[in-house]
Amino acid sequence: MYRKLTFFSRFVPDILAGRKTITLRDEAESWPRIGETLDVHTFEDDRWFCRICVEDVHPIELAALDDTHARQENMTLAELKDVLAGIYPGRDAFWLIRFKLCSGDDSQP
Ligand SMILES: CC(=O)Nc1ccn([C@@H]2O[C@H](CO)[C@@H](O)[C@H]2O)c(=O)n1
């Protein structure tokens, strides 16, 4: 059994295309561990849509977010900050989870 992470369904196409390779979460969702495989579901209807392998997890402040992070979200920095303000109003400290799509077969690199 893999642990489960959810994403808003509007991000599904970007995740499946490999255009979105990070997510920024609060402490409640800082639990993924590097090397861990996760089952990924939509937040709205709990639909499974892929597995991801966690490549990095680290804390990051809002002020430290730059264009590289925005690119990894397939957004501009302004769009990313808007999205964060919408999901996490007033928060300025996050956890960055970087991931790649994976099969869930642990024997694969
Ligand atoms: C319940 C809950 O909080 N779910 C979340 C939280 C965040 N995100 C995405 O991560 C990035 C930065 O936050 C943006 O692309 C967000 O849309 C998400 O898809 N689903």
TrEMBL record:
UniProt KW keywords: Hydrolase
Domain ASCH: 5-103
SMART domains referenced in this protein's UniProt entry, alphabetically: ASCH
EC number annotated for this UniProt entry: 3.5.1.135
Catalytic activity: N(4)-acetylcytosine + H2O = cytosine + acetate + H(+); N(4)-acetylcytidine + H2O = cytidine + acetate + H(+); N(4)-acetyl-2'-deoxycytidine + H2O = 2'-deoxycytidine + acetate + H(+)
Active site: 20, 23, 73
GO molecular function: hydrolase activity, acting on carbon-nitrogen (but not peptide) bonds, in linear amidines
Listed Pfam families: ASCH
Family of the protein in this entry: Belongs to the N(4)-acetylcytidine amidohydrolase family.
Record function comment: Catalyzes the hydrolysis of N(4)-acetylcytidine (ac4C).
Stated name of the protein: N(4)-acetylcytidine amidohydrolase
Species in which this protein is naturally found: Crenobacter caeni
